[in-house]
UniProtKB/TrEMBL annotation, chain A:
Residues 17-215 form the ABC transmembrane type-1 domain. Belongs to the binding-protein-dependent transport system permease family. HisMQ subfamily. The chain crosses the membrane at residues 21-43, 55-76, 161-187, 193-218. The keyword Cell membrane applies. It is a multi-pass membrane protein. Keywords: Cell inner membrane, Cell membrane, Membrane, Transmembrane, Transmembrane helix, Transport. PANTHER family: ARGININE ABC TRANSPORTER PERMEASE PROTEIN ARTM, MEMBRANE COMPONENT OF AMINO ACID ABC TRANSPORTER. It is found in: Cell inner membrane; Cell membrane. The keyword Transport applies. This is Octopine/nopaline transport system permease protein. The lineage of its organism: Bacteria, Pseudomonadati, Pseudomonadota, Alphaproteobacteria, Hyphomicrobiales.
UniProtKB/TrEMBL annotation, chain B:
Residues 29-276 form the Solute-binding protein family 3/N-terminal domain. Residues 1-23 form the signal peptide. Gene3D superfamilies: Periplasmic binding protein-like II (3.40.190.10). It is found in: Cell envelope. This is Octopine/nopaline transport system substrate-binding protein. SMART domains: PBPb (SM00062). It comes from the Bacteria. It comes from Ancylobacter polymorphus. SUPFAM superfamilies: Periplasmic binding protein-like II (SSF53850). Belongs to the bacterial solute-binding protein 3 family. The lineage of its organism: Bacteria, Pseudomonadati, Pseudomonadota, Alphaproteobacteria, Hyphomicrobiales. Keywords: Signal.
Amino acid sequence: MDIAFFQDVFLRLLGGVPLTLQLAGISLSIGFVLAVVLAIALHNASPLVVLPLRGYVALFRGTPLLVQIFLIYYGLGQFRPSLQAMGVWWLFREPYWCVILALTLNTAAYGAEILRGGLQSVPAGQIEAALACGMSRGLLYRRIVLPLAFRQALPAYGNEIILMVKGTSLASIVTLLEVTGIAHQIISQTYRAIEVFICAGAIYLILNFAITRALAWLEHRLSPHLRPPPAARSATQKGEAA
Amino acid sequence: MRHIFKWLAASALSLAAVTGAQAQTAPKAITIATEGAYAPWNFTGPDGKAAGFEVDLAKDLCARMKIECTIVIQDWDGLIPALTVGKFDVIMASMFITDKRLEVIDFSRPYAIDPSSFAVAKTSALAKSGLGGKFDLNKEGEAQASIDKIKPLVKGQTIGVQAATTNQQFLKKYFDGVVDIREYKTTEQHDLDLAAGRVDGLFAQQTSLAATLAKPEYAEFEIAGPGFLGGVFGRGTGAGFRKTDTALRDQFNAAIGEAIADGTIKRLSEQWLKSDVTPPQ
């Protein structure tokens, strides 16, 4: 095994981590906001609004992310005159924004379905209790429905976050040099695919390990109701000691 | 029990001897891989089968060698790794013979030599400069002088190039920091981005550029500046082999020699590439 080569490759691949994190971070943030709006609409709105939204969700969940990035980048690139007329060509000209757009629309579609599941799981009794207290609709969502829905949806949403971090690896097909893009570049110079992909895989593993730890911490913080209260716990500990 | 082991060991040895002996002579049937996305050298036809100059040449060479050939399509950046692990036996994918590649695989003698050039808008400074000619990068003085003349004309522009190619190496070596190099998996993708206006120009083999620019949506672009060969471009385009397949390589060398001598390469290249890329005999 060539330790020096591994080290060199690993350091060069680390150069792609900021872009990988940027792509994932920006698209997940915008995607999350969109997903919340979409999920509430899917849960409540009239069929006239719900139907086209369902269509969008089905489209982005039913097609591969690779195809979506390709169509947004190369597909829309063919409509340059009309995009220029609309004044949005600056956005579609850059591979960076095309990938952000594709990733955002993709994660928003998945997120909407995940959060819709969370919303549906909020017990009717809690909502009725809130209404009985005289809460307005806005306050009801802010205080009762959304927190409960988020807590319920968190494990599934965590999965989606990890999938998006890995999904950024597809950005290399539209010339962006994130971790996988740099890996391809190194392979083209050295023809040592196995070593380079092992390093790239290790970087994604480290990133996703950090994310899963953060999610586990958040899940722990959000579920005190599943554990005995601190007072009870110290009482039982004392009991055992005695 | 011990007898069985002895018998197994003996038969394993004899099997190894038989297969070892077969490796000395070229096989009867081989698989040739091409990229299938580098028209008109090799591309995927409407029927899903590989076609183009190299595909016809491969068929001609196989007929000469009386070897049965299957042609498969494989992504460019996976060609050399897949060859070395034995997914197929020969690469014929417009691959230049370079020292770097020779460290990993073996090549036949060149079956084509085709210089590389920029393609830019007809209104651009490079196109208007009237620079031209052919430069061998091994003659450093002349080539460097020509490159220095091009540099100010393309400064700050975005140039598309296929990743993992000698064209990319050329840009990296001589134009790094001068132009913004954008790397694509296939030439078809950088062609699309030239038409879409995402890149100002391309750098590729002249025959490949000529085929692209012949399409109506590229009417405002042209091949500009001189053609470059030698140096990082190596010794022309050859067929790639595993280093152990020397007998097969020698057979290909003989067949390519015949194809050069009887004008087959000239005929096929004029048919497909609209220019004669026959290397010197």
